[in-house]
Structures are given as structure tokens and as C-alpha cells.
Design a protein that fits this description.
Length: 323
């Protein structure tokens, strides 16, 4: 059990589970930032419609700066989902996802993806016995509705993928990996991610969500910001504060603070694609995600007095039923 808590990339469930889902989120952005492509290999276990699948969200930018977002959902039998723990690897159909890279062979009515990418060294989050993963001590608590893991805040990419026969080189690009597992996604949440700031050392993850907790419920948040090898963690479990100052379907402004730092985040959604999220293990809730959004941050380190400001244009943003 404890090995899995400290290593969220591993398959946390069992294929005999009911009303259960588990999925990995692999995001890749090319060096020229004209192609952003995320894959979600996953399994959905329930009585009505058990299956495995791979979702994709593809954003392509043309020479005029216009962006186009397209998504897809490729279904497989549960038997098409296999996994290994050492070394970690998940396979769905003919596609393989590991901690060293991905090998893709997918096709639907719109797209054909094939090729291989290898990953450089992962940049994992800091952990300890009290904070074994991004969920802090909540990671130890059984029967939570949804668990979350951040596997790599950023890593380098090498290789290429063919997209409808066109060779797209991802060498020199950047990747990101996280995952979710449990019974259902939260009924409302905000999710942000980027590792494409002008300062190449910076990367950000943020999420706030409604959390049912046994006989009660609360609003919980987690945020990890890394710059110049310094990590700033804001979370419910370390007594940080979070304020949503402004929110619409396409914009959110957030303030976070604890004894060590203050962080302001602004996120603007430019274009979105539809993904499918789990409810009681069944993939039935449509959500919208953008992975080429504009995000800006301002961080004040209370210890050193330093102030960092930065922005990016390849952020991931989801604002789901939050207002």
C-alpha cells in the first residue's frame, strides 16, 4: 500500500474493482509550441459499461497563430488494458505509456497517431512521510471520491509522432504527467497547469475542488509552483489560504498565501475541446479543457523578498461547474 501512495504513477486499483476509474494524463508540447497533444490512457470499471480507452486532445497552431482544438475517445475492451509495476508500463490496445516514453498507435474516424517519444529525467514534486504525494496526508485516507497524483512537473521530449501521416518533431519539447483515480471526478473544480513560462525553470499545478469526505464535505485545494529548483506548496493540508477573486467560463483569477509566499494566478481560456469524465466509475460527464490557454503569475517570497512575474501561452485549464 505505502509503495503505491508514494508512487502514484503505479496502477492503484484492481481490475476487479467496481464503480472505479483510473487514468494517466500525458501532455506533450513541441519545441516550437505549435503542437500540443495530450493522451489519457485509462480504465472504467462498472456494471453497465466496463471498458478501457484512450482520450486525446490535440491543439494545432497555424502560421498565422490561429489555434484549432480537436478531441477523441477510443474505446477498447477491459482486456486491452494491461499494466506492469516494475518497470512501470500501461498498455491500451497497441499503445504503450511508461515512465520512459510513449509508443502510440491509435486511429479513429478523424486522426491517425503513430510514433514514439522518449522522456528525459522527470521533475517530481517534493514528498515526505507526512506528504507522500500532492494530496498530502489525504493520500493515506481510504475511500476518497477522487485521488490525484502529479508524476512529473516537466521533462524533456525526444522523437516524433505521425499525425495523419504528417511527421511532427517533438524533440526539444516539454512534457507533463499527472493522474486521477477513484469513483468520480469532483462535481465542481478548477484545474490549471503549465510548464511553458518564459523562465524555463518554472512550472505550475493548481486544483481546487468540492470534496465529499465521509459524512461531511469541504472545498480543498492544492498548488505546486517550482522556479529555479525552489518549490512553493500551497494546500489545504498545510494551512494555506486560497481566494477566487474572479471567475467566468473563460477566465479565473486566484490568490494563494501561506507563511512562506504569496502567489497570484490569472488564466484565460482561448479554445477548448470536449473530454469525458467519470461519475461512479462510468464515463458519462462531458467537460471542457483547453491546453493552449494564457496564464500569468506573480509570486512573492516572504523570506527573501524576491518577486517573480511570468506568463505562458500553452497552459492547461479546466473550469467545471464552479460558478
Amino acid at each position: 500500500m505505502f509503495n503505491k501512495v508514494f508512487n502514484p504513477i503505479l496502477f492503484q486499483g484492481k481490475l476487479t474493482n467496481k464503480d472505479y476509474f483510473e487514468g494517466w494524463y500525458y501532455k506533450q508540447v513541441s519545441a516550437n509550441q505549435k503542437t500540443s497533444l495530450s493522451f489519457i490512457p485509462a480504465v472504467s470499471l462498472n456494471n453497465n459499461d466496463p471498458h478501457s480507452f484512450v482520450q486525446y486532445i490535440l491543439v494545432q497552431t497555424n502560421d498565422y497563430g490561429d489555434k484549432k482544438t480537436q478531441t477523441g475517445y477510443l474505446r477498447y475492451d477491459v482486456s486491452a488494458f494491461t499494466y506492469e509495476e516494475n518497470p512501470f508500463c500501461v498498455k491500451v490496445g497497441k499503445s504503450k505509456f511508461s515512465e520512459h516514453g510513449i509508443s502510440i498507435n491509435l486511429a479513429d474516424e478523424i486522426f491517425r497517431f503513430n510514433g514514439e517519444l522518449s522522456f528525459g529525467a522527470f521533475h517530481p514534486i517534493q514528498s515526505s512521510p507526512l506528504q507522500p504525494n500532492i494530496m498530502g496526508f489525504f493520500g493515506y485516507i481510504p475511500k476518497m471520491e477522487c485521488y490525484h497524483g502529479v508524476i512529473s512537473m516537466k521533462h524533456s521530449l525526444e522523437g516524433y509522432l505521425n499525425i495523419n501521416g504528417e511527421k511532427v518533431d517533438f524533440t526539444g519539447g516539454r512534457g507533463y504527467i499527472e493522474k486521477d483515480w477513484g469513483t468520480s471526478f469532483p462535481k465542481k473544480y478548477i484545474w490549471l497547469h503549465s510548464n511553458h513560462f518564459e523562465n524555463k525553470s518554472a512550472s505550475l499545478f493548481f486544483s481546487i475542488a468540492h470534496i465529499p469526505f465521509h459524512i461531511t464535505e469541504f472545498e480543498g485545494f492544492i498548488c505546486n509552483f517550482v522556479i529555479e529548483n525552489r518549490e512553493y506548496r500551497f494546500a489545504t493540508y498545510n494551512l494555506s489560504q486560497c481566494h477566487i477573486d474572479q471567475i467566468t467560463d473563460n477566465f479565473v483569477q486566484i490568490r494563494l498565501e501561506n507563511k512562506n509566499a504569496r502567489l497570484e494566478i490569472k488564466a484565460q481560456v482561448l479554445d477548448q475541446g470536449k473530454l469525458i469524465a467519470p461519475v461512479k466509475g462510468t464515463m458519462e460527464k462531458a467537460i471542457k479543457e483547453g491546453i493552449s490557454c494564457i496564464l500569468s503569475i506573480k509570486l512573492e517570497d516572504k523570506t527573501t523578498g524576491e518577486i517573480f512575474t511570468d506568463r505562458c501561452e500553452n497552459a492547461g485549464v479546466e473550469i467545471v461547474d464552479y460558478h
